[in-house]
Amino acid sequence: MNLLLPKIQKRIFKKIYQIPFVKQQNDIAYQMAINKHKTNLPIISKDDLELVEKINHEGVAITSLDNLGITSNPQLLQTAQALTSQIQLEINSDDNQYVIHASSQQIMAYPTIFLWGLEQRLLNIIEHYIGLPVAYHGTYFRRDLANQLEKGSRLWHLDPEDRKVLKIIVYVNDVSENHGPFQYIPLSLTSNIVQYLKYNYGYIPNETMQKVISPDNYKSCIGSSGTVIFAGTGSIFHRGKAPENSDRFTIFFDYTSRRKKELFYINNSLPYQALLQLSKNLSVQQKQSLFWQEYLE
Ligand SMILES: O=C(O)CCC(=O)C(=O)O
């Protein structure tokens, strides 16, 4: 399947995949792929297995850079904090803007951030969650603006790119309830809402969500700088709550499987030439996750 499908075609494919016969065939193929890969899963520690179980059960697992103890962690936070002052509002920005992303050039100037997403320990955890070889789609350094706009990722949605999608979110500054936390609806409740709304694709305003489920069930991921959130964003309704007090700075790392079928992903966050430059010292496994389009299964 062409991975560069425009939005409208993706919607059509999504609909086709819902046709009972097609869905049944795809379910069988997916389950077979998962079963086949089980014996190839990397060995991970008991703590990491518990983290994977938490994501599978709840949809989200929260930890911290300190707890993860990956050697490049201190540089990640230092570099991210250095970058925050450079993510400025564009001169001609309009009133509809709610987020600013670091440019490719800015990400390239601080390779630690992009490369953190390829740490083998993280790839192993993600492979256990996804159950299949991992595709790394890159990193997004975000400045979410303190305003009341409710659009895009501030609306409730499931990420549609694959059967299982994983995002790692690192808070660069402290995030309280008024500071735009990542919010989600736990897995079991999300499944009920999907059925009730016959949800297939797209964004749901909070006003609608509140009529379906009490906001008491929303979970806010609150945490200090260095908080790390593993979120199965293809399986839980989630959104970024609008920050009220001051802008929120975060780093997002995006992953799916490398399955050819039912993968609706497009490009890496960086151009190919940049990836080549960044990949010089990577292991074979890391390169396979980075250049996933060449290793589709
Ligand atoms: O900004 C956030 O906390 C949520 C972002 C989001 O919904 C997404 O990346 O899919």
Descriptive keywords:
dioxygenase; globular; 3-stranded antiparallel beta sheet; Jelly Rolls; alpha+beta; oxidoreductase; dioxygenase activity; binds 2-oxoglutaric acid
Describe this structure in words.
With 297 residues, this protein is an alpha+beta fold. It has one domain (7-295): q2cbj1_9rhob like domain (Jelly Rolls, Sandwich). It has helices spanning 7-18, 20-37, 46-58, 65-68, 73-84, 104-109, 111-116, 120-130, 187-197, 206-212, 272-278, 284-290; strands spanning 60-64, 99-101, 134-144, 166-171, 182-184, 219-221, 227-231, 238-240, 248-257. The strands form two sheets. It has a six-stranded antiparallel β-sheet with strand order 1-7-4-9-3-2. Strands 6-5-8 form a three-stranded antiparallel β-sheet, with no helix packed on it. Helix 3 (46-58) crosses helix 8. The radius of gyration is 19 Å and the shape is globular. 2-oxoglutaric acid is lined by residues 144, 153, 159, 167, 182, 233, 238-240, 252.
* Biggest beta sheet attributes: 6 strands, antiparallel
Kindly name the structural category.
Answer: alpha+beta
State the name of the first-level CATH class: Mainly Beta
Q: Order of strands in the sheet with the most strands?
A: 1-7-4-9-3-2
Helix content: 25-40%
Beta-strand percentage?
15-25%
Uncertain runs are none
CATH architecture: Sandwich
CATH topology: Jelly Rolls
The strand count comes to 9
CATH homologous superfamily title: q2cbj1_9rhob like domain
Bound molecules: 2-oxoglutaric acid
DSSP summary: helix tally = 12
How far apart, in Å, are the first and last alpha carbons? 12 Å
Shape: globular
